[in-house]
Amino acid sequence: MPWRLAAALLPLELCQMRLFDAHFHPQRLASAAARETLQRAQESAVVAGAGCGCCPEDWHQLQQLAREFPDFLVPSFGVHPWWARDDGGPWLPELRRLLLEHPHAGVGECGLDGGKKKEIPMQVQQEVMERQLSLAVELQRPVSLHCVAAHGAMLEALRKSFGASHAPGLVLHSYCGSPEMVPAFARLNCYFSFSASILHIPKHAAALRAVPEERLLIETDSPDQLPRALRGKQPEGGQELLNEPQFLPLVLEGAASIRQVPAARLAELTFDNAERVFRRFAELSEKSGRATSASAACDGLRAEGLFVDLTRVRCGRGLCPSSAEAKNCN
Ligand SMILES: [Zn+2]
């Protein structure tokens, strides 16, 4: 059945916000599943997201999805450190071509992963990242960065590539560095994006508390990092649940409680921050108008179970055959 997460799990006000998913990977799913995921995201409080490529082999699929979902998907193209090879970067011309073809696309996901240094030497990871950072300087694009157990080396590499700062912005995705390193990264114009890991890793929650509000972003990192509240769950007749952008309100809710601020405030400021980094998104949200509100995600769905059959949507007056109709039914 077509389904989405019921609002029963979420306070009503969370469903009525407009959220931006600062890091996810739709192209990692088979194309039909990716399309369904993006359609469900569009039915939720998440109005857009940054889809990040991982390797040359997935750029085409990402580009295709970005063409099909131009109002939702802001693409970035890059080589993730897990795919870094000591091959001299034969993919560089294609990366440049894609970035020129998509003037609003970012660079990434690229970065450093100390946890993988046995399989992929740090030297190789570093070279692959630096090639991409040079392109980001040349074309003045934001960069989505992966950094695990290598924050000192990352800081050094960013200073080497960007000097004092990178004006288009840098996004440290699923930030897992120390709270103490936040100011040094912030000076380079880094934004700090937090995933569901804040809900169960105290160090990540501590870093979240240390980030100035004008540098905060939230993300799902889907299809990875399914929030624990949803593990082992599955929609009726569906397959094992993977993470997807529509679950972003769970991250927002957790982040708001860790920072002890109203979720509405956090939604608004992470949305504003995303507009500063992702120019394509800023244009879109200008076009669609910030004042329009309530997503279709929640109207009258609170009494349902964890998942909602989208062929029957409870609305203000009863049951509507589609969420589009339910939206106009209050
Ligand atoms: Zn990622």
TrEMBL record:
Family matches, as PROSITE patterns: TATD_3 (PS01091)
Highest classification ranks of the organism: Eukaryota, Sar, Alveolata, Dinophyceae, Suessiales
GO molecular function: hydrolase activity, acting on ester bonds; metal ion binding
Protein name, entry field: TatD related DNase
Keyword Metal-binding on entry: yes
Entries under SUPFAM superfamilies matching the protein: Metallo-dependent hydrolases (SSF51556)
Binding residues annotated for a divalent metal cation 1, in chain numbering: H23, H25, E109, D221
InterPro entries membership: DNase_TatD-rel_CS, Metal_Hydrolase, TatD-like
Pfam family, one: TatD_DNase
Binding-site positions, a divalent metal cation 2: H146, H173
Keyword field: Hydrolase, Metal-binding
Family matches, as CDD domains: TatD_DNAse (cd01310)
